Amino acid sequence: MKIAIISDLHSNIEALQACLARAQGQNVEKYICLGDIIGYGPDPAEVLDIVMSLPNVEVVKGNHEEALFTAYYKGLRQHIRQTVDWTKSQLSASQLAYLETLPYQVKVGDVTMVHASADQPKKWPYIYNIELATKCMRASDSLVTFVGHTHQPEIFFETPSKHIKNITPSPGLSVPLYAHCRYVINVGSVGQPRDDINAASFVIYDTVEREVKFHRVAYDYMATGKKIIQCGLPHLFAERLAKGH
Ligand code: ZN
């Protein structure tokens, strides 16, 4: 079965629709969303509706969902809090109830799905280096753990000699997952890429072939950026989409 794994959609409907069109062309049968459905972008309600309607979808909570409901909000910078407030005003009571009850981590078959890290998922650590990836690997009860949160596509893996290495995956190339190796796979961001490429990022995981393929999908970031400004959200978020950073 092919599973599309999407993360960090950030209320960007143009990017999401472009990724879903790509996934549908690849015979994807199941979807997993690693959280941060909302935040930064102009279409939170519409993006959430689409996610909730995806076939066989499973969703975990991101820190932007957490910020709607807990004291995590207080630690955010002012312009982010402003966006959380605006986003909350756009969502229905039932949408908010759905987001509040999302799990922090799910196991799908023999792989683990979590927004930030399997190591203290409720503290939202960013896996920026091998040391942090190793902590996630050791904390996960699966050989393969999919994460988002940094918005940077990356594969961390343990070699047979027990060294942890990382690679930046090339889009479109299938990467085999060896049976007894541990992996932490960051799928990148659909709605706000931060690796200097302004195309949306997601992964298709083939459970039969046991391989992952990263996808980069161009979308109309100018349209999203215009809506961000029209909604009165910080211009910075529109600029980030254009830069891919
Ligand atoms: Zn995010």
What keywords describe this structure?
Purple Acid Phosphatase, chain A, domain 2, binds zinc ion, 245 residues, six-stranded mixed sheet, alpha/beta, 8 helices
Overview of the structural elements:
With 245 residues, the chain is α/β, with parallel strands linked by helices. The protein has one domain: Purple Acid Phosphatase, chain A, domain 2. The chain contains eight helices and twelve strands. It has helices at residues 13-24, 44-52, 63-66, 78-90, 93-100, 130-139, 221-230, 235-243; strands at residues 2-6, 30-33, 58-59, 105-108, 111-114, 144-147, 154-158, 164-167, 174-176, 183-186, 200-206, 211-217. The strands form two sheets. It has a six-stranded mixed beta sheet. The protein is globular, with a radius of gyration of 17 Å. Residues 8, 36, 62, 149, 151 line the site of zinc ion. Zinc ion binds at residues 8, 36, 62, 149, 151.
